[in-house]
């Protein structure tokens, strides 16, 4: 935030936090595990030829009116519709955390995610779940939706207000970054992280905002013809990533394809 307040010579811009990663998990690596319990019928060799793909992205913005650093993060789990039950949080398949205080180790968030997947599998409409963590005010949105003609996605989007950056004692910073029991937001400083993020410019000097739908479409566009393999750097087996330094020129040219 020193950059925001005093200029480029005094620090890094929020743009430098930009990061997107795609991890592809071949189902064959789960062979012989409890993963078989997620399949709708007998497990055969065709099942193990499938993939579970995870897209993660993060972007930071400086909210200018009452200055604060706000993060927007999105996790998308993509799997064939036939194996949607795989997206139910399970230690061997996927564990999900909204923040330090709200994660699927606890029963309430576990049941929330499970209800979305079970509703989809039963052809029932679950709608969209929205909420805020009572301790750190992380705002979240959870939805399950179909993608193209074959896949289904579980999408978790989070917005985090990290405060003004003027002091390490800022409650918005402490309650999220440090695990301090008893440190919670108070009513006089609770913000609306999503609203702040979406009202802040995409980058300094820009007036462009990005909605949930734009962010989702941009991240999912990486799946088309495995576009992520050409646009990103392979960082290890089955994993590709891009950040501000690596993808600056292409991000400026076609921002909508890799926004958080």
Outline the structure in words:
This protein has 260 residues and is α+β, with helices and mostly antiparallel strands. It has one domain (13-254). Helices cover 20% and strands 26% of the residues. The chain is built from 7 helices and 8 strands. It has helices at residues 2-6, 107-121, 171-177, 193-199, 212-220, 228-231, 248-253, and strands spanning 19-26, 51-63, 68-80, 129-132, 139-147, 151-161, 233-236, 239-243. Strands 4-5-6-3-2-1-8-7 form an 8-stranded antiparallel beta sheet, sandwiched between helices. A hairpin with a 4-residue loop joins strand 2 (51-63) and strand 3. Mean pLDDT is 77; it is low at 32-48 and 251-260.
Question: What attributes characterize this protein structure?
Answer:
single chain; alpha+beta; eight-stranded antiparallel beta sheet; 8 strands; disordered C terminus
